[in-house]
Amino acid sequence: MSDRDRALAPVVGKGLEALIVLLYIASLVATLHGGVLPEYRTTAAAEVSDRTLSTAADRIEAAVPRRASAVDVTRTVALPDTIDRATYRVRAANGALVLDHPDPALSGRVPLALPERVVTVEGTWESDDRTVVRVRGGGGRVRVILS
Amino acid sequence: MRAQTNLVALGLALVLVTGATVVGVAVADGALAGADRDPLDRHAATAVADRLVAADSPTTVRVNALNASRVEALNASRVEALAPPAERAAIRITLDGESVVERGNPTGGVTVRRSVTVVSRSAPVRRAVNLSRGSTVRVPRGVGRATVAVDSGENTTIRTVRAGGRIVLYDGAGLDTNATVYLSRYEPTTVRTGAGANATGRVVVTYRRPSAETHTLAVTVDV
Description:
The structure holds two protein chains of two kinds. By secondary structure, chain A is of the alpha+beta class. Helices cover 41% and strands 29% of the residues of chain A. In chain A, strands 1-6-7-5-2-3-4 form a seven-stranded mixed β-sheet, covered by helices on one side. By secondary structure, chain B is α+β, with helices and mostly antiparallel strands. The longest helix of chain B is centred in the N-terminal third of the chain and has 29 residues, at 6-34. Chain B has two domains: 39-116 and 213-222, no CATH class; 125-207, Jelly Rolls (Sandwich), CATH 2.60.120.260. Helix content of chain B is 25%, strand content 39%. The model of chain B has no long low-confidence stretch (mean pLDDT 86). Classes of the chains: A alpha+beta, B alpha+beta.
């Protein structure tokens, strides 16, 4: 071994270490961001979507009061602004509550259990807007409006 | 080669960091799986239970009081009509563990319990009194309605029938009827006819005594 080689050895060693650590970190970040994190994000978003839908349905069902000659109820329903960083819409369709999300896997539908005197459920909620459920009517006919 | 010995230490450190990452991901996985609480199952089960005990439901006589014969006639399609969230779901509805409606096997479902009273009406009770021996019939508490049949004998005119001192039937020309009278549910009632000492004939009081039992209604739904 010459003197020059002897001086070069630590430099090569440190360089090698730095390279290995960099490669390691790169592979770790690639694995986490490529596979694990998006999967978790989707799973968590699906759970949030399910809960949003069932909470909204619960609140709508609870907003319908008992039979009365005149009904006028206004309730605010709290919804998350975004699910998986995207805004969404909740709308009433055919006696069911439908969540429309840009990602079809996060959309959903849940039927509403309402008394027979509720004749229609209509309207749409935007997640980033004020979400209010109104119940109007009287006697044997009640309308539920999402606005 | 001396400078390269700490590469071994580096390798070991990287293995440890990898291990910690794997353990962390596994814990996160578990937490995510544990956070899944089936909100749609819960919503469906709550909706079915709430609709079953609601005051305006066809299965109840008043809020939280189920009509025994209606509950007997309950089946999965009627439950669906009552509570649409149970559509195409596995359902089990029990009263104190006794199955009322069962469809599919809702093992992974959510169970919602409600305390209810089950009101059933017994077979009619018939109490007859011969007017030559007595003129009162005692109706127990909890009966809101009774049928009184007056059949007066010869030489007897019954003009009034009183329930707990209140005149419920009257005819100045003499009663000969079969009429329904309304009684107080909250106390025993004495039905008395205004018959004289030598009266003949009979009075028949018929009533149904409702029985109310407290049960636990359990609804399990697996969407």
